[in-house]
Amino acid sequence: MIMVLMNNTPLGSRRYTRLSIVHFARAGAFFLSIFTVMAYWRGDTALGHVLAFYAVMVSGFSIYVERGGKLLLAQWWAGASIVSFYFYLLLTGAYHGTGYLWCFVFYPIPYFIFGARIGAMVNALMIGGAAVSLLWPDAAWLVVDYPMDIRTRFLAGSVALTFLTYIHASDREAAEHEILRLTARVQKLARTDELTQLLNRRAAKEYFVQKLSEIKRYGGQFGLMILDIDNFKRINDTFGHDVGDRVLMEIAAILRRSMRSSDLVARWGGEEIVIMMPSADSSTVRETAEKIRKIIASQPMQVCSEPLSISVSIGATVVTASDTQESALKRADDALYEAKRSGKNRVIVRMSEETLA
Question: What domains appear along the chain, each with residue ranges and CATH number?
């Protein structure tokens, strides 16, 4: 039986990652374009070509992500670009051996793109590769001859920055998970009846709108019942509201056991409970309603000092594409009124004119 209706999508995490990639790519393309122009202006065409290549590539995956490209591909595309450009700056020194200074800019970015765990792994790859390149004796691939003090301080600073960034990213993810947990709890509370732990009227209306939209688009139908406890006011007046509350909880428990997992059961208000059955026709609705009525009528409830016999009346209908929420609910409510007026403890199914035709 459907118990909770909520959007469990993580707190925009995929959207956040997309936005992070786009924002970093735009910023990167902007600065790379400036440095490309400066390199060509100085006559350093080799550096200008490399910077222009990365500027175009970064702009490309920014557009790709904005247009809804696959996020996983964009993440690894961005990661590969960051790592390769990082090593280019470190190994060649770029302009007058100052490229290594820009390497510090790249350490935080993988955390925004991949999260704390994979971001730390990417940083470890970068720092590990840098350590090998800077500390390997006479490394042929290291174009710039950095002083040893620069090499050791660069590596120490890289480790410190990575460690601090990892702590920040981990704390941020933990906070996001806690927000997700609390949001899910609030959403559940907002859609759950406190007494019966069934869905409440708001959740039932949302589900109704969703199902009605589906059958209008794809065809089909669903069953709708309104169940009302007979003589509920007299129960409250005679035995007290505590007993009335226990009666509601007992009936809610019976419905949980009796309905399909795909059915929705919600407290509509007071002693009324709404049941919706996807893809159910009139015979299924009638049979199910009669089964519920008989189960409740045949089981005296131990809710006070003596067993209490309870009965319910049920008004039911089948909702089709020609219905509105108001028309379907009115039809079920009219059927319930007829069941009450004709003696209670019975089921009345009222169909729309279109269904009868």
Answer: 13-187 (no CATH), 201-356 (3.30.70.270)
